[in-house]
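Q: Structure tokens for this one, please.
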Amino acid sequence: MGEKFPACTASDVVRVIRKHGFVLTGQKGSHQKWRHADGRMVIVALHGSKSIPIGTLKSIIEGAKLTANDFR
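A: Here is the predicted structure, written as tokens:
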């Protein structure tokens, strides 16, 4: 059975990745670039209080090398 992904807004994602050591390194429009000291990088699109689509959230989780449970 697959892993369940929570419904998250961009601010939820930012809170979690910041807690795991990512820092904001740049922004172009509504897209923020977050990097970790070990080289991991993710892009988070800020679109108000809209939920991030599951496919996009999956990509962020994989890029950050975190698990869906980290976002609960």
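A few notes: The radius of gyration is 11 Å. Residues 16 and 45 are 15 Å apart (CA to CA).
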